[in-house]
């Protein structure tokens, strides 16, 4: 019952977040269209997002929660917050170091790795926007960890509200700054959103008695245990996000609007995937961690099978409905001002291919979290490397035939294959 309530709460709040995010993107689309400027903005996010994801976002949200849950259950709240502080301190230092390196070498990275196919003026715009986005990344390096800390305490409300506030910050940037500052108004809105993302979670830290430990002691026994799992997880997330860097690399060699159309298509997939897949899997992880910690194998198997059945029952009909309504929906919601009918065609082509992967992406959320709940980070690492290799191979094969839609289809096929492979392994190991 607790798992159901948590899943329902997260589905509701994630749904609100995605609807507000959709509204934000409508404003962005009507302000900038499917244009070179928005291509530059979307491409500029890749490396800052990569830093956030590998250090304090995806890495800790999945790999760290089982350790916090175990420490909280075994040693109490004070010990859990001490472990949290030690990891958070290192995460901030690492984020600051990487951000500085990327800021200093943004030029060659953008020109040779991120968007080598862009015109020089567009590449220069990407460089400036990327350096601005790194400010938000530093804030997220703490905020992302706070999400993990609160979820380990089975508190999901404030972490789920945080992305909503992040969208609000971006809306402020588009509505009040874009006219005077152009695409830079959106970049400043992202920084404001990052501040709000952290601020909304502070009451949760106070409620659960957070005490900061100002230590960078690396040889602490619990830090060593966390590092053994988080090390592979960091590499795994880096590989996953390299797929998004590769996506823009391929798209930059196509036509104007390809990068933005793929970004919109991915956003459309994320609306049902977050409401269904992420909400169920996020609520599931602390429960899986508890069952593994207590060696309750039959309960673990039953919980997993129930979650997978629910995921299939929800995502398959959602995929069919989404494919039927996607074109009129994009036309109704996005078209207007700078967003033209040609932009609609580009976005719909990408969204259709991404939506075919809704079930695969959602099942992957459960499969990957099951391995991390068992404190096994090696299998997801190997799976991610194979997925990245398959994605790049498929892009080479499909992009000449389908343009930017081929990149989206490559994503769907690669991640669905990863989900099926991980579920097969769990069944072979008797977990599923």
Defining key terms:
432 residues; mainly alpha; globular
Oligomeric state of this protein: single chain
**How would you classify the helix and strand content by structural class?**
mainly alpha
Compressed to H and E, one letter per element, the order equals HHHHHHHHHHHHHHHHHH
By DSSP (H or I, 4+ residues per run), the number of helices equals: 18
Number of strands: 0
Ends: how far apart? 21 Å
User: Which whole number gives the mean pLDDT?
Assistant: 82
Estimate nothing, just give the exact number of structural domains: 1
Regions with pLDDT < 50 over 5+ consecutive residues? none
How would you sum up the major sheet? Answer: none
**Approximate helicity band:** over 70%
What is Rg?
A: 21 Å
- Shape, per Cα inertia axes: globular
Strand-residue fraction? Answer: under 5%
Describe this structure in words.
- By secondary structure, the chain is mostly helical.
- The protein has one domain (2-428).
- It has 18 helices and no strands.
- The chain has helices at residues 2-32, 36-44, 46-55, 58-63, 65-75, 77-104, 106-114, 120-152, 157-181, 183-199, 202-207, 221-252, 258-293, 297-334, 341-355, 358-373, 378-402, 404-428.
- The two termini are 21 Å apart.
- The model has no long low-confidence stretch (mean pLDDT 82).
